[in-house]
Amino acid sequence: MATRRRNSDDDADMVLPPPAATLEGREDQLILAAYDLVEKRIARGDASAQETTHFLKAGSRFNRAQMDKLEHENEVLRARVKQMEQMASQEDLLEKALRAFKGYSGQVDPNEMGDGDDYQDIQ
């Protein structure tokens, strides 16, 4: 088992701000603190192989290409969701318009149309 080294004077300079109000904010604070710590360890030359490998992978062209691909896929998914919401809204509007037209042409009993709100919803 590896022994834990004592903090050097450089590590004592790290002062964390007060905890954030939200869980996400707190997580962001801790991530930034961890990045700062690893950056200092890399600069001193005593970073672990795992820490060094993490940043080598994170900075690779392959990883950046994967991240770009994921961002574009997320944009496509957001656009699909928006399109589906718009289609549902258009279908609802079309259904109301058809009911109103049937009522105007006498194809539907006026009592079945309700209180006449269909016409007002179309405008």
Q: Overview of this structure, please?
A:
Helix content is 74%, strand content 0%. The chain has 123 residues and is mostly helical. The mean pLDDT is 81.
Question: What are the salient characteristics of this protein?
Answer:
123 residues, mainly alpha, elongated
Share in helix:
over 70%
Largest sheet: none
- Structural category is mainly alpha
Total count of helical runs of at least 4 residues: 6
Residue runs with pLDDT of under 50 for 5 or more positions: none
Radius of gyration over all CA atoms, rounded: 30 Å
Please provide the ordered H/E string of secondary-structure elements. Answer: HHHHHH
* Mean pLDDT figure: 81
Termini Cα gap? 74 Å
Number of strands: 0
Shape: elongated
Please state roughly what percent of the residues sit in beta strands, choosing from under 5%, 5-15%, 15-25%, 25-35%, 35-45% or over 45%.
under 5%
